């Protein structure tokens, strides 16, 4: 084991998972993690089964784009988009914010709904998803992170699915407390029977419904609501691991790789505010702002709370956020200022270069930045 690997295996992590992990008043670690974020040279073991399956699904999905626009029936197009939203909602509000981060609690009807919707995504069981995601946060951007973005764009986007997990990922995964996940009987049922259930929900039903309900052709059904949907879903999710760990603003903590990304928030129903999310992962909103067009998952959780299906929603106080922004932010927070906002405000800064330049140039000067706050 190299000295850096040794340091990593002895470290308690580069990120926080729950509020209790934080060891500073504004919710972060006090340790310097910069040395752990480099990568060790390692020989990758390719997983050929995954390479073949993913290559084939991507080829069929590309043909699916053509069929979606020029041959598929209108009900097939709507069906594909609705299925995409269902799966994305189960990943964001369910596997991610409920199970991986415990950012709120859910009664059994909501958990059952998430499990059924999640089965349509073909992204392994909710348990598997939540466990890998906890390792990602706790050892973010190190060799113990399953999709370590320090290893480059392709590895964090798709490469990690095509290679065997590093031994450090496996070891660190075992060091985490997953007792709450093991205690959820519904979750464990899905995990145990995953490979019997997933063909039905991810492939058979999405293929049968268009063929029997509105007479869609077999090839359109296979390539559009099945392959195209699954590939877009996988790539949208993967962009959070690659794009949102490389490009964009680090408004809350400039020392970590994750960034703020408005476009991904639309595509992933509110998961693009990734710098905030890694700074405060226990917030059910996964963003400073609540339910809006840029945070559909938060709006859905708030709706479920009104219906009594979700409760104990955790969030972060404005004072705590402000403290963190002033201590570790890159200065870009000043673009939208303080208070709960809809996406419009955030979008102004990102889409109008003049507004962006005026503000970023302004906040770039440290003297003026102090004046702003
Ligand atoms: Zn991340
Ligand atoms: Zn997360």
UniProtKB/TrEMBL annotation:
<feature type="domain" description="Fatty acid desaturase">
    <location>
        <begin position="73"/>
        <end position="281"/>
    </location>
</feature>
<keyword id="KW-0560">Oxidoreductase</keyword>
<keyword id="KW-0812">Transmembrane</keyword>
<keyword id="KW-0408">Iron</keyword>
<keyword id="KW-0472">Membrane</keyword>
<dbReference type="InterPro" id="IPR005804">
    <property type="entry name" value="FA_desaturase_dom"/>
</dbReference>
<keyword id="KW-0444">Lipid biosynthesis</keyword>
<feature type="transmembrane region" description="Helical">
    <location>
        <begin position="194"/>
        <end position="214"/>
    </location>
</feature>
<keyword id="KW-0276">Fatty acid metabolism</keyword>
<dbReference type="GO" id="GO:0004768">
    <property type="term" value="F:stearoyl-CoA 9-desaturase activity"/>
</dbReference>
<feature type="transmembrane region" description="Helical">
    <location>
        <begin position="81"/>
        <end position="100"/>
    </location>
</feature>
<keyword id="KW-1133">Transmembrane helix</keyword>
<dbReference type="GO" id="GO:0005506">
    <property type="term" value="F:iron ion binding"/>
</dbReference>
<dbReference type="InterPro" id="IPR015876">
    <property type="entry name" value="Acyl-CoA_DS"/>
</dbReference>
<feature type="transmembrane region" description="Helical">
    <location>
        <begin position="46"/>
        <end position="69"/>
    </location>
</feature>
<dbReference type="GO" id="GO:0005789">
    <property type="term" value="C:endoplasmic reticulum membrane"/>
</dbReference>
<keyword id="KW-0443">Lipid metabolism</keyword>
<protein>
    <recommendedName>
        <fullName>Fatty acid desaturase domain-containing protein</fullName>
    </recommendedName>
</protein>
<dbReference type="Pfam" id="PF00487">
    <property type="entry name" value="FA_desaturase"/>
</dbReference>
<keyword id="KW-0275">Fatty acid biosynthesis</keyword>
<comment type="similarity">
    <text>Belongs to the fatty acid desaturase type 1 family.</text>
</comment>
<dbReference type="GO" id="GO:0006636">
    <property type="term" value="P:unsaturated fatty acid biosynthetic process"/>
</dbReference>
